[in-house]
Amino acid sequence: MALAVCLLLDPPADAVVRRLWARLEEAGVPSLASHTHGRHVPHLTYASLRTWDLAAVTAALSALPAGPPMRLHLDGLGVFRRSRCWLAPALTPDLEPRQRAVAEAAVATGADLHKHYRPGEWTPHVTLAPRLHLDQLPVVAHLVNDVLPLVTTASRAALIDTSTGDRHGLPHLV
């Protein structure tokens, strides 16, 4: 699978997204809560690495300057071509530069960065449903509109192995 470099949502927003995942499941829409290993956490992914050396990536990201907490204003719904449905954050002046720094640091270790996470090609998102059928979109839109806008402050970052859900905290926010 992949190693994801993630911003973790604050506890109140984490709880809102988890409740939204549960409501999607109740409506018959498989959410990230039940996807693969079932250990997913609400997050925004800076980078997705297809091959990596965990120690090297951890060291490279730990060497980046610590950033202040990141305020995210989620107020939209998006769908990627391959049917992944997500919450869209507003683009803030520091979001893209931080993602670029993370992606470049990871690639410098020899990691293989997924093409959708290359700087300039990345679309920030918080995944809701990884395998949405388009006929389910009205249900998702209705449920999402019940929780938007959602404002969160991300103050923690982690490396998450998407095949197992194993989480490795980073020493500071990147």
TrEMBL record:
<dbReference type="InterPro" id="IPR009097">
    <property type="entry name" value="Cyclic_Pdiesterase"/>
</dbReference>
<protein>
    <submittedName>
        <fullName>2'-5' RNA ligase family protein</fullName>
    </submittedName>
</protein>
<keyword id="KW-0436">Ligase</keyword>
<dbReference type="Pfam" id="PF13563">
    <property type="entry name" value="2_5_RNA_ligase2"/>
</dbReference>
<dbReference type="GO" id="GO:0016874">
    <property type="term" value="F:ligase activity"/>
</dbReference>
